[in-house]
Amino acid sequence: MFASLPLTALRAFESASRLLSFKAAAEELAVTPTAVSHQIRSLETWLGVPLFERLPRQVRLTDCGERLFHSLHGAFLEVAQSVDTLRPQRSNVNLTVSTTAAFAALWLVPRLGRFYARHPNINVRLDTHCEVIDLHQDASVDLVLRYSLDDYPNLYGLCLFDECFGVYGSPEQVTLAATRTPALISVHWHNSKLYAHGWQAWCAQSGENWLDNSPAVREYDEEHYALQAAIAGQGLVLASNILVSESVASGLLVPYRGDVQVDGAGYSALCVPGRERHPPVRVFFQWLREEALLSGHALR
């Protein structure tokens, strides 16, 4: 049934498709770029369709190439995971998770101790670079924790919770805000589609005229900087109910008019279909689901 499959050529194609480079594929496979090119040419001849567009200094998958890559990558991944389950278990297993620096610092890391207590042999490596990772192209990342308004039909996903924004401050600042206009703290959002004109929306709902009386809104590039400014008593912050949860639980921040909330987006855990069955990924998904329920913000 499988005797006629050109496995060497398929392996070269998967590597070149994932890396979008014949040279990088050659380095990964420990062969020459010419050998990779020859294998892919032979595969295209065998199939009778082009798989790559050869452009100056780069290659791009054709529609047929995209279809083959997605099915082949998932199949190779499942075989690799099956083989791993048959090997004697190593003392430590690495799990690479990509997310934002703010979500890692304010929600994930404070809870990771409970994960390690149950799974001491799994080492979670956090990738907090700002670039959005294409999981179909980057096999080094096991899963991503993503904040977005979008759906991801080509990925296996677990919806963790929806987010809303409220106003928080130190107990002293919240008390003072009842009698005078506070300094306002916010985050400079890199993607304005996710949350635009936040303070304006909150003030419109609450009826507060702070924007008319406050000299300026102090902006920070990251949520954890904005929360630290609020904890230090520098004003009131417009913040995510998810990311502020640890500071509220410890009493460092308290809500101001907690009934007034502005809708945000949602958090999801995502991976390439099939990877959710890999034991470290499976137990991490299960742990995330439990932590989302414990936080009281989980999607029902």
From TrEMBL:
Keyword Cytoplasm on entry = no
Domain HTH lysR-type intervals: 5-62
- Residue stretches in coiled coil: none
One example of a Gene Ontology biological process annotation: DNA-templated transcription
Q: Which PROSITE patterns match?
A: HTH_LYSR
UniProt key word DNA-binding: yes
Q: Which UniProt keywords apply?
A: Activator, DNA-binding, Transcription, Transcription regulation
| Record-linked Gene3D superfamilies | Periplasmic binding protein-like II (3.40.190.10), Winged helix-like DNA-binding domain superfamily/Winged helix DNA-binding domain (1.10.10.10)
Looking up InterPro entries in the UniProt record yields: LysR-type_TF_proteobact-type (IPR058163), LysR_HTH_N (IPR000847), LysR_subst-bd (IPR005119), WH-like_DNA-bd_sf (IPR036388), WH_DNA-bd_sf (IPR036390)
GO molecular function terms noted in the UniProt entry: DNA-binding transcription factor activity; sequence-specific DNA binding
- Tell me its family: Belongs to the LysR transcriptional regulatory family.
Q: What is this protein called?
A: LysR family transcriptional regulator
Q: Identify the species of origin.
A: Pseudomonas vancouverensis
